[in-house]
Amino acid sequence: MTTQEQRVLAAVRATPTATQQELAERIGMSREAIAGHIMRLTRKGYILGKGYIFPEADSIVVIGAANVDLSGNSQSAFLAGDSNPGSIHQSIGGVGRNIAENLARLGNDTTLVAAIGKDSSGQWLREQCINAGINTDYFHVSDQHATGRYIALNNHLGELQAALADMQVVDSLSPSYLQDQIKIVKAAQTLVLDANISSQTLLWLAQQNLDASLMADAVSANKAPKLKPILSKLQVLKVNQSEAQAILESDESSVEVLAQLLLKCGVKQVLLSLGNQGVLYCDAKQLFISPVKASKPVSDTGAGDSLLAGFIHARKLKPALDIQQQLSFALHCAALTLESEFAVNPTLDEQAIMSQLSH
User: DSSP assignment of 135-169, as one string?
Assistant: First the structure.
C-alpha cells in the first residue's frame, strides 16, 4: 500500500459515509485522485465493496478441504481384514474446515474458502459451518464433483488404524476461482492453507502480494511435499515426523534435525507434532518440546487441526502469552479435541482454555 493510499484509507475509515469530494477536501487531493485510490484499495481488498465495507482488523481466511467425516471406533482391539464391532458417527470435517471451526469457536472472525458438491451433503456441511460461526460466503459449489468424504477407522483407544479420503472436489479451488475471490484473500491478516489444495493453487497463492501471515498444515505424508516450493513464504508450518521427512525427501529420524532443516528452507516457525508426546517447537532462536496435557482420548481425528488453530489464536494474544504459553494453549485445544467424538470439540472456548492455563 502506498503512502497516498494509506492516507485515503485512514480518512475513509474515520468517516465511511463521506463523499469522495468531502474526502478530497479533507486531505487535499482532487476528487479524481480519491476515486482512483479507492478503486485500487478495493482491488487490493482493503475495501470490500460499496459503502466502504472494511474487513475485520484480525480477520483470518482458511483455504482448504471441507468434507463429511465418517468415524468408526471398534469396541476392542482392532483386527485388520475383519469386521470389528463398534460405533459409527457422521460429522463434518476436512483439515481446513476443522481449523476454521476451531478458530471461530475461539472467537476469531473466520472465513473458509472451500469446495462442496451440489448435493445434500454439501448443503448440510455448509449449514453446520454457518452454525459454528464460519463465514461460508466464498464456498465454491461444484456441479462436477460430489462433496468430499473421509472415513476413519479407530481402535478402542481412539487411535487411527486406517482411513480413506475422496477429495476430488478440492481441485476446483483453482487459481482462476481464487482470482475471483482475491479481495477477501488480500484482506486477511492471517491466511491458512492446507495441503489438500493443488500444488498449482498453493504456488499461485504464495506468489500473490499479500500482507497476511501465511501458515500451512501439511495434512499427510502423501500431500505434504506440495508445500516444498512455498516453504520460504511460510510463517508457521505444522507437520509430524513423516510429513517433515516427505517434504525434505529425507529419512532423518531426529525430529530436532528435521525441524531445523525446515527452518533452513525458510519456514519461520515449525510445529512438529509428536502425537501423545506433545509438540516440538522450533524457530531461529529456540527449540524445545512441550508435553501434551493428559487426557482420556476418544478419537485423535482433528487433534492436529486444533493444535494449529490454537497456536494461531494464541499468537494473537501475545505479549500476554509467551511462546511456551502459546504452545500450552494450543496443546490444551488439542487435548480437548482428543476427548471428543467430533473432529472439533463443540465445547472449545478461549476463556475455558485460559482458565486451564492459570491452574
Answer: B-TT-EEESSSPPEEEEEEE-TTS-EEEEEEE-GG
In a domain, 317, yes or no: yes
For residue 189, the enclosing domain spans: 60-67+95-147+167-357
pTM above 0.90, yes or no: no
**Rounded Cα distance, 330 and 53, in Å:** 32
Nearest of 68, 51, 64 to residue 13 by alpha carbon? 51
Q: Of the candidates 52, 142, 140, 31, which has an alpha carbon nearest to the alpha carbon of residue 96?
A: 140
**269 alpha-carbon distance from chain centroid:** 15
Give the count of domains, the chain: 2
Q: Are 129 and 11 members of one domain? A: no
H-type helices in 197-240, by residue range?
A: 199-206
Q: How far apart are CA 17 and CA 236, in angstroms?
A: 38
Residue 184 maps to a domain: yes
Is position 54 within any domain?
no
For residues 346-357, give the mean pLDDT.
88
Q: Among 65, 283, 90, 288, which Cα is nearest to 169's?
A: 65
CA–CA distance, 210 with 197 (Å, rounded to integer):
18
Round to whole Å and give the CA distance between 35 and 46: 14
What is the reported pLDDT for 55?
Answer: 55
Q: What does the pLDDT look like over 71-84, one tens digit per residue?
A: 898 999 999 999 99
Band (pLDDT 50/70/90 cuts) for residue 238 is very high
- Residue 77 domain-assigned (yes or no): no
The pLDDT value recorded for residue 298 is 79
> Cell match 460461526: residue?
133
